[in-house]
Amino acid sequence: MTESMCEIGAIGKNKREELLVTIGEIHGHRVVDVRIRFENDEGEMIATKKGVNLRIEALPGLIELLEDAQAQAMLRGWVDSPTEAERDAA
């Protein structure tokens, strides 16, 4: 899966794993890839087969779903609103 991928970033999942986001081309298709990456015994971060890649055209829909999930989490009091989180960090 390493044809032409560009790492966008990663967020921690737990002590040894993170969620990695990349975009690029796989077999001639432009994709966004979201995958678990873990720290091996040598301290290297290795991408696993656990993940999904979507055609790049699906990216706006994925972002919309994540924004909806964030809104629901805020309504339930599970997370602060982005402005509250920024204010708390200052």
TrEMBL record:
Cross-referenced Gene3D superfamilies: Transcriptional Coactivator Pc4, Chain A
Pfam families attached to this UniProt entry: PC4
Any GO MF annotation of the entry: DNA binding
Occurrences of domain Transcriptional coactivator p15 (PC4) C-terminal (ranges): 14-64
GO biological-process terms attached to the record: regulation of DNA-templated transcription
Annotated InterPro entries: PC4_C, ssDNA-bd_transcriptional_reg
Protein name, per record: Transcriptional coactivator p15 (PC4) C-terminal domain-containing protein
Species this chain originates from: Pelagibius litoralis
